[in-house]
Amino acid sequence: MDSAAPYLTDRADDTATGQVLGLITGLADAADWLHDHWYLLALAIAVCWGVCESVVRWLAARASAERMALELVSTRHFDPNLEEIFRRGVQLARASTSMPWWAPRRAKAVQIRLRADGSAPLRYRIEGPAGGERLLSITPFGPDVAVSRAQPIVDEPRAHTVRAEFILRGKLTSPLREVPLTPDPLQPLVDAVADLRAEFGDLAEIRLGIQRAPKWALQARRMQLMGAARRTELREAQRAARWLRQDASGIPDSLGWQLQQMLTDKPASGGGRRLMMPPVPRRVEPTEALGKLAEDDHLVRVQLLVMCASNTEGRAQARLAQLQAALDVFGERSRWTMRGWRLGPWRTGADHWPARPGFERRWNLGHCQPPRANWVRLEELTGLLKPPTVHCRLPVLATDLPTFELGEPDLLLQGIYRGPDGRERLVATYAEETLFEVGVGKAGGGKTERALAQAIGWAHAGGGLVFVDPHRDSWPRALPFLAHDHLMERIALVDLNALGTNPQVSSWNPLAMHQGQTAHEVVEAIADAYASALAWDDATAPRALTILTAALAVLVAVNEAACQAGRPEDQATIFHVWALITDAGFRRTALAAVAGHLNEETRAWWKSVFPTLPPDAFAVVLNPIARLAANPVTRAFLGQPVGVYNIRAAMDSKMIVWVCPGGNGPTDRLLTALLAQDLLRAARSRRDTPEAKRVPFRPYFDELITLTGAAPETIASMFEDLRKYKCHIHGMTQLLARLPAAVRLSLVQNASTLATTAGSRSAIAPITAEWGDDPSPDRVATMERFEHYVSMNVHGRRVGPIQLRGPHLDDVFAAQARPQQVAQLERAAQANAGALPLNQLTDRATAQLGRVTAFLTAHAPAGASAVRLSKENEWN
Fold first, then answer.
1. Element (H, E) at 469
2. 77-103 b/e with 16+ CB inside 10 Å = b?
3. I want to staple 404 with a disulfide (CB 3.0 to 4.6 A). Which of 139, 320, 426, 812 is the partner?
4. Which of 832, 767, 809 is nearest to 437 (CA)?
5. 99: Cβ contacts below 8 Å, ≥ 6 apart
């Protein structure tokens, strides 16, 4: 047994050795076989990878089907601070993980979509997991940002499309440039799409995908960076050692140093041997080596995709270049650059194979697969985590402010807008939204020219208007552009300036009843006009108001009787107030003839109160009438029984009426007050017409200071009430402060359009104050002539204030000028207004008292001439 043991041991060792050698031989054979059949291994790996990738893509697509979209719209006063924006970034990062556990990482992302397609300057949209909707719907921005559920966007195919993916270049650990919030960091992107043309099919969209950083990837990146930093430090130490060895050739005990001393007479300085210490590598600090990757908090990975499209060749490529330049603003030591490479005219990137399919998949499904270098902190994305703020200068698109087209009844011309690309267009507001308009500015600044252009455009579109101009300068200016055959039948001129050797004047009877007016409304309108022009009220002139109202009630009753008798030519006029008060015979006859048309209180007043009044009580009532009668023009205009001027009929038939009162003296102010009050009464009388059938009508008031001096309360009531009756006022004035307080407050409060030209700082300040002093009074005061700052209402929201150039008639309506037909239009306008020679109308007005007396005598009861009111004889 002792001899067999070594044998067995040796045999076991041989067996083990054979097994090891067999294993090694097998491995070598396998390696040799794999070397000869490597493609089979590669194919197996590719198949496994393909199967895994297909599963991951299927899961990611399924997860992406449950995404949601929110649209964020900021107000013009949106001004967030850094903390609010940072909190929004934290919300976005947190919402990116609101996915099912099985969702692949590429689907766990939130996208910020900045889109410009002509519908808005820059639409701000957030897309993310459906589970994050509640988290993202409540923003830290407060009420200045409206958040709404957004519908999917379906784009029509464009003829030309370019794509690009941007990655961070430069030092990986360096942050992007810290862009201040003022001006808005989005401003370069807004400027890049400011000249986008929707009619060319232009489209530009930026999608920023945000994904929380995976821990394992971050740790791997940190280890890589630390290793690279240590290797760099080691190389620096080795380089220093090499320089040290070179310097060693100059130490005192070296052969070179000794030869140098023998060849020179200079004695050696110093002595002894210097101790040579090899350089030691410096310790690598993690904070220095890792930079922005040193901390885990608020670190995200981002993916930046851009697509531009157009139906016009070259525009999409140019747009992409503009966006690339805009993204350069965020660059410093780290910057956004387009992924790919260029070799001469050839370029590879997201627009080319093999990158394009992956780009399309990520674009369509919202997946986020950032490049390895795209690590950022939320603070670096401050400018992209919020919608445009108050500090962002947004362009005005056609969807914000429509382009004016002559003859379009829904549009109202506002001015000429110059876009960021230098292209000019006529802009307009929608007529149904332009309820009241106010234009302020110094004389000659262009406010009347702008109003004329608007009125002429409205007239050519078939709209009705009245242009009240005390100075008459607007009429000859507008004549050539209104001298069209289809307009002549609608234009009427009421000119009270009595120009020329044989002037012609229209006619109006404020007391006339042949047009179906309501008696008490006519009385109230004239009494209110007197009170407004003469500053009467119930406290300062109660007796004068009572006398005038009673006299008007009798004369209106006379006119009702004349119309009922079929004799409207026998109606009384406002000048018959004098006869009614001073002529006892006329008064007795009138009261007897219309007793059935008067209420009991009016009859009792004339019987009991009038005889007790002293003679000097009537002077305050008769004096204004005497002034009107002393002026032959106003006597001819107001002294006709059946006047042609009828503003209610003009409203309903879309007439174009030019009214030139002829001055701003006391008599002219009274006449203006009568016209203004009649306009207010006529507009209110439209309540007898269903709202849907009321025809829009636009009164234009030039020189509001003059007009409101005559009828302040009336003009204020127009700005307050007439919107209900589709009567929309446009007023122009040099100074807002010169207007009565009631007019100024009503005018500014209800103005749909507020415009100002250049002027003194003090005159402009009340207007710019309505805009929050943006633009400032100093800026507006230094504008060029015919430039305007205008704020408008479009689609229920305010647009502007924006700078517009006032439309000049000779430029905007050059094609509509008909100077050869001016004389024909003037004749037609006077004919439509029923204008007759001044002397003829004056004679007719003088004879009207006799006609009215004859009518009353014929219709008075028998024995009326014997009636005596108590104390009449004493007063006479």
1. none
2. ebbbeeebbbbbbebbbebbbbbeeeb
3. 426
4. 767
5. 63, 107, 108, 129, 131
Q: What is the CA 444 to chain-centroid distance, rounded?
A: 27
Determine the Cα–Cα distance for residues 872 and 876; give it in Å rounded to an integer. Answer: 6
How many residues are listed for the chain in this entry? Answer: 876
540 Rama class: left (phi>0) / alpha (psi -120 to 50) / beta? alpha
Q: Per the structure block, which two tokens stand in for 388?
A: 């445009």
Which secondary-structure segment (H or E) carries 275?
A: none
Residues 469 and 797: their CA atoms lie apart, in Å, by: 32
Pairwise CA distance, residues 643 & 650, whole Å: 13
Q: Give residue 190's identity as a one-letter amino acid code.
A: V
Q: Is the peptide bond before 801 cis (omega within 30 degrees of 0)?
A: yes
What is the H or E stretch that residue 144 is in?
A: none
Neighbours of 254 (CB within 10 A): 12
Cβ–Cβ < 8 Å for 165, 349: yes
Would you state the structure tokens that stand for residue 600, as one six-digit string? 């009991």
> What is the distance between the alpha carbons of residues 844 and 823, in angstroms, rounded to a whole number?
28
Q: Is 629 helix (H, G, I), strand (E, B) or coil?
A: helix
Distance CA 526, CA 547 (A): 13
Q: Which two tokens stand for residue 234?
A: 């080691």
Helix axes 712-721, 666-684, angle to 10 degrees: 20
- Among candidate residues 226, 209, 219, the one with its CA nearest the CA of residue 376: 209
Give 129's strand partners.
Answer: 67
- Cis before 183 (ω within 30): yes
The two three-digit tokens of residue 328, written as one number = 């350069």
* The dihedral sign for the CA sequence 568, 569, 572, 573: positive
- CB 56 within 8 Å of CB 97: no
- The Cα diameter of the chain in Å comes to 179
CA dist., res. 457 & res. 313, Å (int): 37
pLDDT of residue 279: 66
Written as six digits, the tokens of 74 are: 């900021």
- Check: CB of residue 704 under 8 Å from CB of residue 739: yes
pLDDT value of position 203 = 92
* CA 876 to chain CA centroid, nearest Å: 69
Q: Token pair for residue 863?
A: 């024995």
H/E element holding 264? none
Contact criterion met (CB below 8 Å) for 203 and 311: no
pTM: 0.78
Q: Which residue has the tokens 């030691």?
A: 280
Cα–chain center distance at 675: 36
Strand ranges for 806-850 from DSSP E: 836-837
Q: Are residues 358 and 303 in contact, defined by beta-carbon separation less than 8 angstroms?
A: no
* Strands 753-756, 437-440: pairing kind: parallel
Q: Which residue has the tokens 């015979």?
A: 585
Give which of 843, 840, 839 is closest to 851, Cα–Cα. 843
C-alpha to C-alpha distance for 584 and 721, rounded to whole angstroms = 41
Q: Token pair for residue 122?
A: 């820059």
DSSP-based three-state secondary structure for 116: strand
pLDDT at 876 (0 to 100) = 33
What is the three-class DSSP state of 347? Answer: strand
Mean pLDDT by 10 residues, the chain (876 residues): 55 69 78 75 83 85 85 88 90 86 86 88 89 86 88 86 90 85 90 86 91 81 81 79 66 58 59 56 75 81 92 90 91 86 76 86 88 86 90 83 88 88 87 88 85 92 89 88 90 84 86 83 85 78 86 89 87 88 85 83 86 85 86 88 88 91 75 85 87 90 79 81 87 84 83 87 86 85 88 85 90 90 90 88 87 82 44 34
Strands 797-805 and 787-794: antiparallel
How far does Cα 126 stand from its chain's mean position?
23
Helix and strand counts by DSSP (H, E) for the chain: 31, 24
Q: Collapsing DSSP states into helix, strand and coil, what is residue 825?
A: helix
